[in-house]
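Figure 3 (text version): structure tokens given as input.
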């Protein structure tokens, strides 16, 4: 049986956030986002302290009392420490630096920035660095309580925190896993050189730096070398482990009453062929080009009008950030244009409705994932696992999942709209034996490389790093 480890998990969003209900009683709800879902199994298998930002007023009230015991959905107990930040400081950290600056740079989207670099260095020093320092202080406080614990930092919100902890506690075991793409020196050059260097130095203070793909891992190494950080890189274990899903939990969700009800509604109104996309309204997801590609298909193949429809399930994303508002407006305009030319061929739903997404996963004939760039993209794994129609995945070569799934998908260049249109056509007409081989290949891979295996890889990296230091 796997030995329980003492772990400190650090992420911007935590496993729970708190509000007062209509009766004035404190109520917990599960934290949003795939990262929380992915890391939750650690709680049942290890002695976990989870450190996260206090995001609501009730979170901040709890943060004032220090860490406390909490219960996961499976009954496991864990320790939760919420870190309260000054609202103005957090706004600089999250809405100026992390999103959209780091996000845009690391997804090749810098040209979309409405104010490239304006006030960035001040936001970096008085926002991003301050919040990272607060996280580091919380980690150090927990390490005083559990000095043998290993620390697992996660994602682009926390690039500086490992270095701050290392300054105070040189012998602690630290890892950092980045869940978005990494880019090379040319892409990083749009930012001030001091910031770029601090990012890479902060990560290299970790014993382990992890990414989802060899491509992102290699880009990190190349950029470190270009910054003259080769010696620091030599002392750091840099790994690539693609994240996955909890297969059993996901298959169970697919048969849950709420999903089955959504599926009945979908089947009652579906056409002969269904092209599906499930995304956030994020510029990196490339939604408008996907709609344009479907329009080109119907122009070229008018015999498909009325027989094939596209269903776009879109979760409105980061609407407090101007660039995301512009993106949503562009998607809505593209959808309106398509609908005016081909009435009834497109259905767009703007909502965060996970049961509806799973129901649609079960019913797609073609799944379109045409991201400009993606750290991984779990939709490409989730949807084929539960699909009942031997659907075909059309996948961007710039999605991290392509590295694993390339032999079982139709690859597309995310900037080539005509190529995407042709891929949709080919997917609709792919012979049944190929469809079966491809979807079975994806399912077999996902089952063999599930979430448990990804978590075990993180812990194995910690063991390797510890042995390298001793």
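Below: residues designed for each position.
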């Amino acid at each position: 049986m796997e030995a329980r480890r003492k772990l400190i998990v650090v992420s911007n969003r935590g496993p729970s956030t708190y509000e007062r209900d209509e009766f004035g009683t404190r109520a917990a709800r599960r934290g949003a986002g795939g990262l929380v879902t992915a890391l939750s199994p650690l709680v049942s298998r290890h002695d976990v302290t989870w450190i996260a930002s206090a995001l609501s007023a009730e979170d901040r009230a709890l943060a004032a009392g220090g860490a406390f015991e909490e219960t996961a959905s499976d009954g496991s107990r864990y320790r939760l420490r919420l870190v309260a930040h000054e609202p103005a400081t957090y706004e600089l950290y999250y809405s100026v630096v992390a999103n959209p600056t780091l996000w845009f740079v690391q997804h090749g989207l810098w040209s979309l920035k409405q104010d490239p670099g304006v006030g960035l260095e001040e936001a970096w020093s008085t926002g991003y660095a301050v919040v990272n320092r607060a996280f580091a202080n919380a980690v150090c406080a927990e390490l005083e309580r559990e000095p043998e614990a290993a620390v697992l930092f996660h994602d682009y919100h926390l690039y500086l925190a490992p270095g701050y902890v290392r300054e105070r506690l040189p012998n602690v075991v630290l890892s950092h896993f980045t869940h978005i793409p990494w880019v090379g020196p040319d892409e990083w050059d749009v930012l001030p050189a001091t910031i770029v260097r601090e990012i890479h130095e902060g990560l290299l203070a970790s014993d382990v730096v992890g990414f989802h793909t060899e491509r992102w891992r290699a880009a990190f190494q190349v950029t470190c070398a270009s910054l003259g950080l080769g010696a620091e890189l030599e002392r750091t274990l840099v790994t690539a482990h693609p994240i996955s899903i909890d297969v059993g939990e996901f298959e169970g969700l697919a048969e849950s009453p709420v999903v089955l009800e959504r599926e009945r509604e979908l089947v009652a109104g579906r056409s002969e062929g269904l092209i599906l996309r499930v995304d956030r309204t994020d510029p990196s997801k490339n939604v408008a080009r996907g709609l344009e590609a479907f329009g080109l298909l119907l122009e070229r193949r008018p015999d498909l009008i009325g027989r094939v429809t596209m269903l776009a399930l879109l979760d409105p994303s980061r609407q407090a950030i101007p660039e995301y508002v512009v993106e949503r407006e562009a998607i809505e305009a593209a959808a309106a244009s398509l609908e005016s030319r081909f009435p009834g061929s497109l259905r767009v739903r703007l909502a965060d409705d996970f049961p509806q997404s799973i129901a649609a996963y079960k019913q797609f004939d073609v799944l379109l994932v045409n991201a400009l760039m993606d750290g991984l993209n779990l939709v490409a794994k989730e949807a084929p696992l539960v699909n009942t129609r031997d659907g075909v995945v059309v996948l961007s070569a710039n999605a991290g999942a392509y590295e694993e799934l390339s032999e079982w998908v139709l690859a597309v260049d995310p900037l080539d709209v005509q190529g995407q249109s042709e891929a949709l056509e080919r997917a609709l007409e792919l012979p049944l034996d190929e469809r079966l081989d491809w979807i079975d290949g994806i399912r077999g891979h996902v089952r063999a490389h599930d979430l448990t295996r990804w978590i075990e890889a993180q812990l194995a990296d910690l063991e390797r790093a510890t042995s390298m230091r001793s």
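The longest strand covers residues 273-280.
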